[in-house]
Amino acid sequence: ILRRALEMLGADVVHFLHLAGLTAGAVRATAVRGIRAVFTATDFWFECPTVQLLLCDHSRCAGPGPGRLNCARHLMEIRHPTLHALSAISLLDRPAAVALRVAARVPGLRRMTAPFDALAARSPVLGAALASVAAVVAPTAHMRERLARFGVPEERLHLVRFGVPRPRADCAADVNQDARGMRIAFVGTLAPHKGPHLLVDALALLRDVSLQLDLHGDVTDSAYCRVLQ
Question: Which residues sit opposite 138 in a β-bridge?
Answer without folding.
Answer: 159
